[in-house]
Amino acid sequence: MILTVTLNTALDVTYRVPELRPHASHRVTEVIERPGGKGLNVARVLAALGHDTVVTGFVGGVTGTVLRQLLARFAAAPPDTAGAPHGTITDALVPIAGTTRRTIGVVDATTGDTTQLNEPGPIVTTPEWTAFMDGYGRLLREASAVALCGSLPPGVPVGTYAQLIREAHAAGVPTLLDTSGEPLRRGIAARPHLVKPNADELAGLTGSTDPLRAARDARRRGARAVAASLGAEGMLAVTAHGAWRAAPPRRLAGNPTGAGDAAVAGLLSGLVEEVPWPDRLARAVALSAAAVRAPVAGEFDRTVYEEVLARVEVTEHPAAA
Amino acid sequence: MILTVTLNTALDVTYRVPELRPHASHRVTEVIERPGGKGLNVARVLAALGHDTVVTGFVGGVTGTVLRQLLARFAAAPPDTAGAPHGTITDALVPIAGTTRRTIGVVDATTGDTTQLNEPGPIVTTPEWTAFMDGYGRLLREASAVALCGSLPPGVPVGTYAQLIREAHAAGVPTLLDTSGEPLRRGIAARPHLVKPNADELAGLTGSTDPLRAARDARRRGARAVAASLGAEGMLAVTAHGAWRAAPPRRLAGNPTGAGDAAVAGLLSGLVEEVPWPDRLARAVALSAAAVRAPVAGEFDRTVYEEVLARVEVTEHPAAA
């Protein structure tokens, strides 16, 4: 199975309003709730691709209860995968006394744009952290890969991802790290197999706005491979075996939330299936485009996925000077 | 006791963000949850004024559970009334299968302005409505006054407030109606003792933007008395015994959410205490101003209340031509 870690899970709430006007009062016309946090979205896409997944991290309070109920419902009957291969999603979230945060996405029906409001996460106590680490160690024994996803909740040390990566190394499990800022910087130093920053995160890490140069720098800092998302322009991978760029055949309009998580699922599934890098990158780009066409994070449009996958253009970069 | 009816209760969530920018992502720096819906705010202010209150309406789902827990906490230990007289708040809400809505107020810390996002309410079934009406009839027997507050949830007939007013008439209980649009229009025709529209609601009802003319028109339509809130300019009352205008001594900056509910509590407490109309209006204006100075609906600043109450200017209008 593939393990995904989401330390700062969220109940994702999407509000649709006719038009968002600051300082006005709005009637919300539609409310959608989903289990949220990057690792949970990654797991849902992986399951739709046929991979058995286990999700861990922290969950608590009434929002945590709703999150688990929704996750169980998706695990039982994913809404968007009729006839498609389907892996299991196992809930190995660790209960905490605090309350899982909500993240609210307000979709302006006039422009299609989303305004995001993210609550801070709950405090995690030392005994809760110990319970998580015990479970993490046990889960690694069964894992073919682990994805470490998203922000850290308050009180969790900034070097946590580095610690989780070292544990995975000790268990012989390849790691994918998808975070930003200082947790990314510290995590990279622990030599994860793959990091998936976007261009901004890569620039923040390395100081370079040239993605190829920045990705090479990130490898020197410790990442064994870097797959950088370049938004509508696709993705760039820099690995020990070469560097490739993959571009979708056309720019797709839609909701970019969850596109990065779909790309992570594409990279991870490619890793455990031992797909060659160019195909792995093509899969990530096609899933990312197909996620943009789905209304909520954690889902993708299978028709768009197959159509784009057949037409992604992958080009190899010349070796570094 | 004073009964307040809130058919469309809400879990009020207040988010503080450094600055609200449409289509951007925001970290919420503070989350406050309160039992919400106009009648619940009115009850909390009445209790702080020393009146025993009973709240009824509908409540359901996980948000409903949180709402009831918060209400019980406020009833046990109101946070803003140290040393002040304190009445009881009794929860007579009727459980439903649907889920109580959330209302989210996003406070921009830079400007102090609030952007409001209101979820639609849950569907109320016929058996649930019957259970409510049975309880309402029983509660009226003990009530010295009843306030009918706020919007109607989906599926509740638009003439509902008229029905509740007729039941109260039959039980000999005076009624205050605080709603808008068609439910206000229909409710007024059932001859409530008092309606408390704001200037916009009054203009929508009567077509007149002159509040005095519109209030007189509302009386001709059935309201025995009209207390219209005029925002920062105070309030206007038109009754069978005369017409008065009450103005606060100065304009107070703050959060206007809940100011109308505090005014309703002032009017209701004045009604059951048989306070003369000019004093009743002064109390409503002072509570409204004191609510503007409190961070959340259902609370008021007692120091501001007492200071403003001593200085509200009430003037009598000449009799209608």
TrEMBL record, chains A, B:
KW NADP (keyword) present: no
Family: Belongs to the carbohydrate kinase PfkB family.
Domain Carbohydrate kinase PfkB, residue spans: 11-72, 114-296
Membrane-traversing stretches: none
Name of the protein this chain belongs to: Tagatose 6-phosphate kinase
PROSITE patterns, per database record: PFKB_KINASES_1, PFKB_KINASES_2
Species of provenance: Streptomyces demainii
InterPro entries: Carboh/pur_kinase_PfkB_CS, PfkB_dom, Ribokinase-like, Tagatose/fructose_Pkinase
PANTHER family: 1-PHOSPHOFRUCTOKINASE, 1-PHOSPHOFRUCTOKINASE-RELATED
Entry keyword Cell membrane: no
Main EC class the enzyme belongs to: transferase
Pfam families from the UniProt entry: PfkB
Gene Ontology molecular functions: tagatose-6-phosphate kinase activity
Entry's EC annotation: 2.7.1.144
Gene3D superfamilies reported in the protein's UniProt record: 3.40.1190.20
Keywords: ATP-binding, Kinase, Nucleotide-binding, Transferase
